[in-house]
Structure formats: C-alpha cells, structure tokens
Amino acid sequence: MLLNLEEKLDPRVKRTRKFLEQAFAELLEEKGFQAITVQDITDRAEVNRATFYAHFSDKYALLDHAIRQSFRQEIEKRVLNACRFDMGNLKALIVAVCEFVKKTNEHCTPPQPQFESLVETQVKDGIKLLLHHWMEQDNLSADPQTAATAASWAIYGLALQWSRDKNRLPVEQYAEQVLPTIAANLSLVQAA
Q1: pLDDT at 192 over 70
Q2: What's the pLDDT score for residue 106?
Q3: Which of 38, 58, 104, 148 has the smallest CB count inside 10 Å?
Q4: CA–CA separation, 66 vs 138, rounded Å?
Q5: pTM above 0.85, yes or no
Q6: Which DSSP letter does residue 170 get?
C-alpha cells in the first residue's frame, strides 16, 4: 500500500512544503527543470534558502518528492490503493501509469535524462508497492516482492513505449493489449 508519510508531519512543516511544491510546480511550467535554481524556488515560495534546505537537499530531491507525491495522488484518485488484485484493477493500473508517464513526459521537452530517471524510479517504486500489497492481501505469490518488481518494470517500460509512440493506440485499447503480458509476468512467479 502506498503510505503517506506526510500525514505525520507538523502542520507548519506541511504548509512550508506545500509552498515549496507549489512554487516548484509553477516554475516547472514556466521555464523547465534545468533552468530552475533553488533561489528561484525560495523567492517564489517566499521562504529563505535555509528553510528550503531544511526540507530538501537540492532541487533534485524536491523533484523526486514531487513525482512521488504526484504518482501517489494519481493512484489514490483512481482508488487503486484501496482495491484488491484482479484483472480489471491491473488494467486500471496500466492505464494510470500510461497516462501519468505521458503527462510527465509532456512537461519535460526536450527530454532530460535526469528528469526521466527520477520519474522512472518513483513510478516503478509506486507500482511495486501497490502490486506487492495486492499480492500479499490474497497470498497470490510465494514471492510477491519478485513478482511485483518484475511487473513494475514491465508496466513502466510498456507505458514509456506507449507515451513515446507517435501513432499510439488509445490508452484503454493499449492496456487491454498488454494486459496478458503483465498478467503472465505475475503468474510466472506464482507457478514457479
């Protein structure tokens, strides 16, 4: 299950993080990640640099946090974190990942390897946690960690391929097409 560690933070810390996150998001829209400085973020959020560094080690840590939070919110919006494993929920997860990857790639033009790497890491980790949770709920695998890891890599890779395809299928159709591949990926570990 995707946990929200933010819920345990002091309200003042949450508020400051929200200011930093909002400033960062606005700046991303305006000028792109590479052009943003910590000073830009602190000026926009109306906090000092020491406050920024009390929350994040650098702008990459803030980006990492923002991606993780954004993906978690996408999963929660679709209520996948409250679901159990079944093929319909697996398909919904594939659709969610495809749409999230496409949306994040659109915000980063031209592609920036550091940005893409952070997105990949956070999305795969989020998928893995959710799949692991689903599989443990129903004892679907003797090794849910391995199954969830393999499937998370497959889902992310397929979503990235779909997002880059200029003649891509509609997302629901694509998810239906790759669903057997993902399901087999999970079943291989179950059968072993």
Answers
A1: no
A2: 74
A3: 58
A4: 31
A5: no
A6: P
46 Rama class: left (phi>0) / alpha (psi -120 to 50) / beta: left
**Rounded to an integer, what distance in angstroms lies between the CA atom of residue 74 and that of residue 95?**
11
State pLDDT tens for residues 142-188: 788 888 999 999 999 999 999 999 999 999 999 999 999 999 888 64
Q: List b or e across 108-129, with b for residues whose CB sees 16 or more CB atoms inside 10 angstroms.
A: beeeeeebeebbbebbbbbbbb
3-state secondary structure 4-27: CHHHHCCHHHHHHHHHHHHHHHHH
Domains and CATH numbers, the chain: 5-59 (1.10.10.60), 62-191 (1.10.357)
Task: Provide the terminal-to-terminal Cα distance of the chain, rounded to the nearest Å.
Answer: 25
CA separation for the pair 6, 73 (Å, rounded): 12
Angle between helices 59-77 and 87-106 (to 10 degrees): 140
**104 vs 40 pLDDT, higher one:** 40
Which region, left, alpha or beta, applies to residue 79 given φ > 0 means left and ψ of -120 to 50 means alpha? left
What are the tens digits of pLDDT across the range 70-119? 999 999 888 887 888 889 999 999 999 999 999 887 766 556 677 788 88
Task: Please state, in angstroms and rounded to a whole number, the distance separating the CA atoms of residues 109 and 33.
Answer: 10
Which residue type sits at 185?
A: N
C-alpha distances (whole Å) from 46 to each of 99, 108, 109, 128 are 33, 25, 28, 36
